[in-house]
Amino acid sequence: MATPDRVSYWNKTRGLMFLMLGLWIFFGYVIHFFVSALNNIVILGFPLGFYMAAQGSLIAFVVMLFWFARKQNSIDEEHGVAED
User: Fold this and answer.
1) Going by C-beta distance under 8 Å and a sequence separation of 6 or more, which residues neighbour residue 18?
2) 52 occurs within a structural domain
3) Cys-Cys with 27: which of 12, 16, 60, 81 at CB 3.0–4.6 Å?
4) Pick from 23, 22, 31: nearest CA to 53
5) What was the pLDDT predicted at 35?
6) Per-residue pLDDT tens for 10-57?
7) Could you tell me which residues come within 8 angstroms of residue 1 by beta carbon, excluding any fewer than 6 positions away?
8) Would residue 83 count as lying in a domain?
9) Rounded CA gap, 58 and 48, in Å?
């Protein structure tokens, strides 16, 4: 890989990593700081704070995992370093 292409590749990969880290902090910690406020919102009979603590964050992590893999694969293909 040429040097300018390598810099572009790592800039995109680093940006994706920081985005995912920010989302992980948001769903892992920030949401849980506001559980009492979120409990005022009721969805399907369950308070939103309880739902986010019990299942919502886990669902978000799984969705983030698949989205990250897909996005990283597209970055790899764009720069010619994709695996077969």
Assistant:
1) none
2) yes
3) 60
4) 31
5) 85
6) 999 999 999 999 999 999 998 888 888 889 998 888 888 888 777 888
7) 9, 79, 80, 81
8) no
9) 14
The upper half-sphere exposure of residue 42, i.e. CA atoms within 13 Å in the direction of its Cβ, equals: 3
Residue pointed to by tokens 């739902």: 51
| DSSP for residue 41 | S
Residue 27 CB neighbour total at 10 angstroms: 19
Helices (H) and strands (E) in the chain, counts: 5, 2
In whole angstroms, what is the distance from residue 9 CA to residue 5 CA?
6
Domain residues for the domain of 29 are 3-78
* Rounded Cα–Cα distance for residues 78 and 24 (Å): 26
pLDDT (tens digit per residue) in 7-17: 999 999 999 99
